[in-house]
Write a structure and sequence with these properties.
17 helices, 562 residues, six-stranded mixed beta sheet, five-stranded mixed beta sheet, alpha/beta
Length: 562
């Protein structure tokens, strides 16, 4: 074993943090690293104290570990105190009347704090990850001590339920403790504005400044007894309103559902059952929340192998449809059998245009929105039906605010807002219901989701999308690659001249376009990945030609990436 001594300055920082750490176990963890004398532990400490976990528009997200550069009770308490201070500065506290009194049907019998005093509401939800419940309770107690009517969801629930609750309760803000589909070692802290959508700049920078201004962590006041724990009736209300989206129609569909070890199984099952889908089989190994996600390498439906258990069960049961939610159930993945019985997962763009097309055929007017990395087919559909279209930067916070009359929004990363008036964020539960409805309707007509996609390709041209995703251990690899591509973009792709765009400073995004295709390159906002989003358009609708061109484009773009 190689030994070493932490630098004097680092050791002083560690001791100062330990002295102010609100969690004795975390303090002991840091002290053990400090005392070990192992050079590996020194490097670990240096990483934990290399900076502070930054608060962005996605809130906080990082590894569960003690120290300022991790998710832990001290970092979360400081974030909650900073958010509370920012809300006060914005005029969201002490004004009275900003929140509705707590209805009796919302309050768990015997819960602390009945609310209704007129203070602005802050509602807090959490998933089933390690630490989530504790982070949520600490946050709610800090909001209550800061003068807010703090309301805590009754148990681990999907993120869309929290987004729903913000609007349902007329809250000044909402907090969801979740790291979505990140690895088990991570957790996160997502903030919603009063409109029920995720925050956007400059709110993130202002909140980050307020967090930095927080004094001693151990001095942050908490008021546990003033927190209102909401009843399951709020969850019932969400289920009822999602089910109300469903139209009468065929329900003869055999579905397999996986919650990916997250919190979506119960709510998705209730919604589908109440909407008339009686033949739904949850994947038993993944139906119960488990923060270790033991059956998948990454709890993300997009990752290779993540749907293996669901597809195996679907094959065994001769199912028509596989629906997968990510661990916090704000995303929805779909897999279907082809004509030869081979299962394939639909791309997020395919599900997005299927859902948009279904709403447009049903006469739902308004603006249809997606992001710059998604398929251009939505633009074509919007023009065909004569409705508004909007294209935003990546992130659902932008999609949600694309237009006041937003009727539908999606991002290729399996996020869909099929009822923005209900949930102004991506919602994997309501999307699952809409997908099931469409699949059942098509099956009753002797067709399938793949048939509908072929119909759209024949009418509007085949828009084939793909993605290259490179996971790195060293984030400097991504920064160097973006700098190199920014300095020397490709002049030609697929034998066509490329128009190169740099979206800085609005976003760290590069876009290369030419007639019949485009490539967008950007760092992932939530994972250590560099991503390239590819699209080729084949006007004649030929699947073979589109696939041939996409294979060639993948080769060309891969050669440009690290």
């Amino acid at each position: 074993m190689t030994t070493g001594v932490p630098g004097a300055e680092l050791a002083e920082q560690v001791r100062a943090w330990i002295a102010d750490d609100v969690d004795p176990a975390d303090g002991a963890e840091l002290q053990a690293l400090l005392d070990s004398g192992d050079s590996g532990d020194d490097r670990e400490l240096a990483d934990r104290f290399a900076g502070t976990l930054e608060f962005g528009t996605a809130g906080l997200r990082g590894p569960l570990r003690a120290g300022p550069n991790g998710m832990n009770r001290t970092v979360v308490r400081r974030a909650a105190a900073g958010l509370a201070a920012w809300l006060v500065e914005q005029g969201s506290a002490g004004q009275g009347g900003a929140g509705e009194p707590v209805p009796a049907w919302l309050v768990e019998q015997g819960s602390a704090g009945q609310g209704g005093a007129g203070e602005p509401v802050v509602v807090v939800g959490y998933d089933a990850r390690h630490g989530s419940a504790r982070f949520a309770r600490d946050s709610a107690a800090i909001f209550a001590a800061a003068g807010f009517d703090a309301r805590l969801l009754p148990r681990p629930l999907p993120t869309p339920v929290l987004a729903f609750a913000v609007r349902q309760l007329g809250a000044a803000a909402g907090v969801m403790v979740t790291a979505s589909h990140n690895p088990a070692s991570d957790n996160g802290y997502k903030v919603y504005a009063a409109d029920g959508a995720q925050i956007v700049p400059p709110a993130d920078r202002e909140i980050e400044a307020a967090i930095r201004a927080v004094g001693a962590s151990r001095a942050i006041p908490l008021a546990d007894d003033a927190v209102t724990v909401l009843g399951d009736q709020l969850v019932d209300r969400y289920v009822e309103q999602v089910v109300a989206l469903a139209a009468d129609g065929p329900r003869g569909l055999r579905i397999v559902h996986t919650a990916m070890h997250g919190v979506g199984s119960e709510i998705a099952g209730r919604v589908l059952a109440a909407a008339g889908f009686a033949d739904v089989s949850p994947v038993p190994q993944q139906a119960t929340p488990d923060p270790d996600f033991p059956t998948v390498a990454f709890p993300n439906p997009e990752e290779p192998g993540a749907l293996d258990l669901a597809i195996a069960l679907a094959t065994e049961r001769s199912a028509d449809l596989v629906i997968a939610n990510d661990p916090d159930a704000d995303r929805c993945a779909v897999a279907v059998p082809d004509a030869d019985g081979r299962w394939r997962m639909l791309r997020g763009d395919e599900v997005g245009v299927l859902l948009a097309d279904a709403l447009l055929r049903a006469g739902v007017r308004g603006t249809y929105a997606t992001t710059i990395v998604s398929s251009s087919l939505l633009r074509v559909l919007a023009a065909y039906y004569g409705v508004g279209y909007a294209e935003t930067l990546t992130g659902f916070k932008w999609v949600a605010r694309a237009a006041p009359d937003l009727a539908f929004g999606y991002e290729e990363a399996l996020g869909y807002a099929v009822a923005p008036k209900l949930v102004l964020d991506k919602d994997g539960i309501s999307a699952a219901l809409r997908v099931a409805e469409l699949a059942a309707e098509l099956k009753a007509a002797g067709a399938s989701l793949l048939d509908r996609l072929a119909e759209l390709a024949a009418r509007h041209g085949r828009h084939l999308t793909d993605q290259i995703s490179i996971r790195v251990d060293d984030l400097s690899v991504i920064a160097d690659a973006m700098a190199s591509l920014r300095a020397s973009p490709p002049g030609r792709l697929l034998d066509a001249d490329v128009a190169a765009e740099d979206l800085m400073p609005a976003a760290d995004v590069l876009r290369w376009r030419w007639p019949g295709g485009r490539v967008v390159v950007r760092p992932s906002g939530t994972e250590p990945k560099l991503k390239a989003y590819l699209e080729v358009v084949e006007p004649g609708g030929s699947a073979a030609e589109a696939e041939r061109r996409m294979a060639r484009l993948r080769e060309q773009v891969s050669a440009l990436l690290p």
